[in-house]
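Continuing from the previous page of notes. For each protein in this section, the sequence appears first, followed by its structure tokens. Read the first protein now.
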Amino acid sequence: MGTKYSIDAKKNAGKDERIKVLEEKLNQTENKLNELNRNLEQKVIERTVEINRLLRNKSKFIDNLSHDLSTPITPLISLLPIIKEEITKPKTKELVDICIRNVEYIKRVINNSRELADITATDLIFKKENLYEIINELKKKYDVVFKSYNTKVQNNIQQDLIVKTDKNRLLQLFDHVTSNAINSMPEGGTLTFETKNVKKDSGVFIQVSIKDTGVGLTREQTDRLFDEFYKTDDTRHKLDSTGLGLSICKQIVEKHGGKIWADSHGKGTGTTIYFTIPSKDVVFDRSF
């Protein structure tokens, strides 16, 4: 009996020792994981600070560059039409017209670049606004344009729908989306505004959809539509678009805590731009 108990005691002692060694290894592993997590968190913080610094420098660079370019462009815009009036040769007038169109395009690029830099660098001022009335304001603003391009506008938004938004920035967004939609409907068409509620962790957001009946887009085009300087015109010679309008829209929506995307089922099917903005009850920023 004594021998059996002695053997059992040794087995238990050996088992306890193995458990102790295992626990020590687990503790060592846990300490290493905790240290790795702390290092990772610190690196994330450092990278975030660096990214924010680079974004600020980018905005400052674009703003300075735009300002420097606008100085020599201004007299060209003023003087080229005067020079054109002094020219009698039709061929030379055509050449001056080419210069005028290109200078005006450069001016649009400068203005859109400064607009994008300004949105990136500044905070939005949020207030409760009636979205239905904002769309009606847009309709009145572009009434002549809509008629001249044979574009019908349907405002299907609930008349008492209140959202939290920076109204001026939201109107900027609608300006760019509407301009793109009109260009995609050269023979005229319909522009439809609708909304629905979507739930997020921070509360109910409003999903706005702007649907046109234009030429439509391919999958590749919808995937790249909000990239800076991207143009759906593959030749990139289309001078009425800078490729920055929808990038500006993306910045505005993200400043609202929302997201923006496009949907189209191919050529000839029209395009719908979707984006989300906070409802009147959402609280995700101290600015509210």
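Done with the first. The second protein uses the same format. Note its length before scrolling.
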Amino acid sequence: MKVSVLTPTYNRGDKLNRLYTSLIVNNNSKVEIEWLIMDDGSKDRTKMIVTNFIKQNIIDIKYYYQENQGKMAALNNLVKYATGDVIIECDSDDYFTVGAFDTIEKYKNELNDEIYGLVFLKNDQNGNNMGNEFPENNYRSDMFSLYFREGITGEKAIAFNSKIRKKFEYKLEADEKFVTEARMYHQMDLEYDVICINEPIMICEYQKDGYSKNIQKVFKENPLGYYEYFREILEMDLDGVTLNKRLYIYKHYILFSILAERDHAIRNVTGVINKIIVAILWVPGLIKTKRMFAKC
């Protein structure tokens, strides 16, 4: 089995060594590894650092460069070059656990024409699970159901079935540079499932300049993609979605309708009940949004 690791990076050259080291540690596994890096217009020493990695000739590394377009465009461009049976997207501030690729190899037979990915746990640097565990090992579901119906929380690491992953891309709106990964996952959910594994394969450290640390700024700069994401959710079958998650969907639809300055946002909602609830929550949502983003 061959795994393609895709890493978009922007001015994070100093963080890449830790990910590189974790790949070297795992290079004695039964898995063939290729590391594809997209430099998203960095102004630091990223190219020189990666060039030094390549010269060491320990693992297969390919470096690509694009003018700054954002993480999602970088991944859309990188996936075209992936030659592995499995594709894993790994941020520059993430790295792999010891034995991660042997763990993936152990479950490789679960990836078939109906399964688009293996979903593994993700730990923080202290070894704590970033969220909760799945109901059981080898649990079959889809990403929407996991988070909106089944109470799964926190970040997970996905090892994609390459043949299926290459059929999809992250949909960006206008000139925006970011959209939640879940928008693509939900499109994949319509045709395929995932298998969930209660074993960690990745470790994460959030950066001060990362998306999660600056979420309000991300929301304000990329409202169209998020608006479309929540609009699409309201077109889905919400049967079984918990009340808290339904309120989360309605509130965020209102938030991004306002940030994106969408006309007829209530009219655009699918379903009579959805329209009524959005209408009821609209004014409180408008007031809260104006307060929240007043200083952004």
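What the second structure shows: Strands lie at 2-9, 32-39, 60-65, 86-89, 94-96, 115-124, 139-141, 156-161, 193-204. The chain has a mean pLDDT of 94. We return to this in next week's lecture.
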